[in-house]
Write a structure and sequence with these properties.
By secondary structure, this protein is an alpha+beta fold. Helices cover 17% and strands 30% of the residues. The longest helix has 13 residues. It is globular, with a radius of gyration of 14 Å.
């Protein structure tokens, strides 16, 4: 099943991102497999990242993202700020990272924008 816009799929393919387009419970999502995390920042070196896509994507922004396994900060063994709520999807309990996007530009932004937001959230997690 392929539902991502072609330019989003090409972006991921060109960067060697291991991803799956999935749909469950009436919700389309992008699953990024084995994403390497900032070195020394978390209690594991890599995690899967789930991005739920709104029905009007790419005209509307994905909101939050989710990780498995649940990530804790290596320095304190606590969850990052606003990342301590569970979200059930694909039969698993994902760690919800409550990071909202109010600056999405329809026709300009795409999955590359969301990946940058996730990268930034991981870098500044506290």
């Amino acid at each position: 099943m392929a539902f991502l816009p072609l330019k989003c799929r090409r972006y991921l393919d060109d960067r060697g991102v291991d991803f799956q387009e999935v749909e469950a419970e009436g919700q389309k999502a992008l699953l990024l497999k084995n994403v390497f995390l900032p070195e020394g920042r978390f209690d594991v070196p890599a995690a899967d990242v789930l991005i739920l896509l709104p029905t009007s994507y790419p005209d509307s922004a994905p909101d939050m993202f989710y990780t498995l396994p649940w990530l804790k900060l290596a320095s304190s063994t606590t969850y990052p700020r606003a990342a301590d709520v569970a979200h059930s999807y694909l039969g698993q309990s994902w760690q919800r990272w409550s990071r909202h996007n109010n600056q999405w530009r329809p026709g300009i932004d795409g999955i590359w924008t969301m990946l940058k937001r996730i990268e930034t959230a991981m870098e500044v997690a506290a």
